[in-house]
Amino acid sequence: MGRWVLDLAFVWKAVFTLGLVLLYYCFSIGITFYNKWLTKSFHFPLFMTMLHLAVIFLFSALSRALVQCSSHRARVVLSWTDYLKRVAPTALATALDVGLSNWSFLYITVSLYTMTKSSAVLFILIFSLIFKLEELRAALVLVVLLIAGGLFMFTYKSTQFNVEGFALVLGASFIGGIRWTLTQILLQKAELGLQNPIDTMFHLQPLMFLGLFPLFAVFEGLHLSTSEKIFRFQDTGLLLRVLGSLFLGGILAFGLGFSEFLLVSRTSSLTLSIAGIFKEVCTLLLAAHLLGDQISLVNWLGFALCLSGISLHVALKALHSRGNSGPKPLKSLGSSPDLELLLQTSEQDDEDNEEQYFVTQGQQ
Fold first, then answer.
1. In this structure, are residues 89 and 73 in contact, taking their beta carbons and an 8 Å threshold?
2. In this structure, what are the phi and psi dihedrals at residue 354, rounded to the nearest 5 degrees?
3. CA neighbor of 335 nearest in space, from 152, 128, 26, 195
4. Where is this region: Disordered (predicted)?
5. 222 contacts 108 by C-beta, under 8 angstroms
6. Torsion-angle region of residue 135: left (phi > 0), alpha (psi -120 to 50) or beta?
C-alpha cells in the first residue's frame, strides 16, 4: 500500500511539473512568435514594448492589491532614494534589453533571434566575473568558448542573415548580461524586500517605461503620430484591433513572468534551466516548420555547440548546488537568457534544501 502511494505521488508530481513546463512553453514560445507576427504589420516595436510594460505594471499592481487584501499584510514600497539609486540602473538595462530585442524582429528571423539571444549566457558569465559574482574557472572558460563558437557557426553564411537585426539582438544580449548581473545584486539586498517577483515587476516597470521613452521619441515618435494605425487613425475598428493586439502581447509578457515563478517555486531553478534548453530547440523547429526559416547544416551544428555550452553551464550549476548544503544563494544566473524577470524564492521542494533561486528571464 505504501509503495503504491509513493508511486502515485511520484506520477502526480511528474504530471504537475510537466504541466508547469508546458504552461511556461506556451507563454515563452507564444510571445516570441506573437511579437514577430505583430511587427510584420505594426512597425513600432518600441511603442509595443512600452505598452507591454504598462500592462505588466497594471497586472502587477492588481496582483499586489489582491495579495494584500487576502493576507492583510502591506506590500513593500521602496523609498524614492532606494528606488532611484538602486532600482533605476537595473530598470534602464532591462528596458534596453527588451526594447532592442523587440526592435530586432523587424529585420531578422525567429531562428536567428533565438540563437543570438542564447548568447546572453555568455555576457552574463562575463559580467558575473567582472562583478566578482563568479570565480574564474577552466569550466567557465570552456562554456564561454562553446557558446561563442556556436554563435559564430550559426550565423556563418546564413542565407537569412541581417546585419542590422543581428546587431540589435546582440546588443540586447550584451545589455542583458549587465541587466541580470545588476538584478542579482539588487535582489541580494534583502533589506529592500524585493524577493517576490510581483513586487520586482511592480517597481521595475515605471522606470523601464521612462527609460525607453527617449529612444521611442527619437526613432518612432514622429512616424507613430502620423500613422493611420494610431494617432491619425480614421478607422475606429482598426484602432481597437491594434490596441487589442498590443494588450494581448502585454498579457503574454506578464503570463511569462508568472509561469516562470510558478515553475521555479514548485520545482527548482534547475528545472527551469533545463526546460529553457529544450524550449530553444522547440522554437527553432517551429520557426523552420511554420515560418520557413532556412537553417543549414553548419547552422544546426553551431546551435548544437551553443546548446552544449549552455548544458555544461546548467550541469555545473547543478553540481554546485548539490555540493553546498544550507540556504546559500546560487551565484549562477541560470541558462535561459530570454526570460523576463529575475526570480528569487525560498520555498522548499520535497527533496531540496532551502535555497535562493536567481533565474534569468524574458523573453521579448
1. no
2. -65, 135
3. 128
4. 344-364
5. no
6. beta
What distance in Å separates the CA atoms of residue 354 and residue 358, rounded to the nearest whole number? 13
Interatomic CA distance for residues 80 and 78, integer angstroms: 6
CA distance 187 to 342: 8
* Residue 279 CA neighbour count, 13 Å, CB half: 32
Can you read off the three cell numbers belonging to residue 204? 521595475
Q: Rounded to an integer, what distance in angstroms lies between the CA atom of residue 303 and that of residue 147? A: 9
Going residue by residue through the chain, which has 364 residues, state the pLDDT in tens, using 9 for 90 and above: 566 666 677 777 778 888 888 888 889 888 888 988 888 888 888 999 999 999 999 999 998 888 888 887 878 788 888 888 888 888 898 889 888 988 988 888 888 887 778 777 777 777 777 777 667 777 777 877 887 787 777 766 655 678 888 889 888 888 877 877 777 777 667 667 766 778 878 888 999 999 899 999 998 888 888 877 777 777 778 788 888 888 999 999 898 877 876 776 666 555 666 677 778 778 878 887 777 777 778 777 887 887 787 777 767 766 766 665 444 443 443 333 333 333 333 333 333 433 333 333 344 4
Helix (H) or strand (E) holding 341: strand 339-343
Give the position of cell 482598426. 238
**Which residues 6+ apart lie within 8 Å of 337 measured at CB?**
117, 118, 119, 120, 121, 124, 173, 176, 360
Grid coordinates representing 191? 533589506
CB 132 within 8 A of CB 185: no
22: phi then psi, degrees, rounded to nearest 5:
-65, -35
Q: Residue for cell digits 503574454?
A: 252
Q: Structure pTM?
A: 0.74
H-helix or E-strand spanning residue 332: none
Alpha carbons 50 and 217: distance in angstroms, whole number: 12
The amino acid at residue 316 is: L
